[in-house]
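S.,

Sequence below, as promised.
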Amino acid sequence: MKKKLWTNEQSHFPPIKHLNGAALILGAVLLTAAVIITIAGCERKTEPPPPPPIVEVAEAISTNVPLSTEFIGQLDSPQNVEVRARVEAFVEKVLFTEGAEVKKGDPLFELDKKPFEEELAAAMGVLAEAKAALNKYEKDVARLTPLAEKRAIPQQDLDNAKASVDVGKANVLSAEAKVESARIDLGYCDVRAPISGLIGAKEVSVGELVGKGQPTLMATISMLHPIWFYCNISEVQYLRTENWANNTGKNISDFPISLILGDGSMHPDKGKFIFIDRAVDMKTGTVRVRAEFPNTKKVLRPGMFGRIKVDLGVRPNSILAPERAVAELQGKNFVWVIDADNKATQRAVKTGEKVDGNLLILDGIKPGERFVVEGLQKVREGAPVQAKTVQKQAQVAAQPAEAPKQEKE
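The prediction came back faster than expected:
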C-alpha cells in the first residue's frame, strides 16, 4: 500500500485541480493591478507650487510737482443791458446795425414824437398861466401893504393877497414839473445806447407799438471787455485751495488762471479770481466764484462754456502715483507696497489733487518704496510676487522668441 505524500488537511491552498479557469484569470488580473499600483506609487512625485504672480511696480520718487486744478463754467458779460421803451409810441426808425459795436450815447431807435411835443406845449402853456397869476398876486400884495399899514383897508384883505401869492408859487412849481415831465417823455423818443458794447438783434421793427402797458424789450447790449467766467467749486476744493494759498503766503486772487475754450484752444490772456460768494449752496455744496479775463479782440461772448485751469505753483518733495494704482475701500485709499523680499503689504494712503492722470500722495508712501501699478487683483497680503518695472516688462516683451529646435532625423 502506497503512502500519501500530500493531503488536503496539510495544504494551505486548495489543490490546483479544484480551481476553474475563471478563478485563475481573476487572480492574474488582481496580481497585475497590484504590481502596477505599486510601481506608480513609487514613481509619483510632488507637484511644485505655482510661481508667484507677475505684477508691475513703480518706485516712489520725490519730485517737485506743478499743482493745478480745473473747473467747468460759463462766460458772461459784466453788463448785459436791456434797452426798453419808456414811453408808449410807434417805432419810426431803427438807427443801428445788428451785431455791431455801439458807443455810449449812440442813437438806436427813434419813436413818434408828435404826441409828446403836444403834451410839452400844453404843459408850457399851463406854466405861463401860473406865472402870470403869480405876478398878479405879488402886485396885489405890494399895493395893499401900505394901505393896510394906514388902516385904510381891512387886514384880512392883505392876508388873502399874501395867501394868493403862496398858491401862485405852488401852481408855478407844479406847472414846471409837468413841463419837465413832458420834456423827459419827449426825450425818451430818442432811444440811445446806455453803455458801450456789442448790440444784439433788434427785438422790434418800424411801425410797431412799444411801451403799451409795460416797457417793451427793444435790444440788448453786452460789454465784452473784460469778460467774466462763472463756475461752482466744491467745498472741499475751496478749502484745499484756500489752505494752499495760506501755506504759500498768497491770496486766491494771486493765482494765475488759464481759460480753455470749447474747441480745446487756450485763451491768450491770463485771468484772475475777483469774487467768491458769501455762502455755500445748501443744495449742491458748492461755492460760486467769478474770474475775469481780458477780451480785447472781443472773441469771447456771453454764454460760452469753457474750463479754467488754476496754477497753484509747485509743491516740493511730492510723490505721484497713477490713479489705477490706488484702490478705494470704504471711503479710504490704499496701495500695495512691495518690500525687499518681494512680499506685498496693503497700506493706507492720503491722496491730494490729480496731476496729469496721477494722484498726489500726501502720506503713506516714502521715497524709494515700490508699489504695484498693474495686477492689483493678483496680490494678496503677505504673499510673494514677481515685481517688474514698466521698463523691464517692455524689454521682455521686445525680446524675440527662440525658435523651436528641430529634431535630427
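The chain has a mean pLDDT of 82.

Coffee later?
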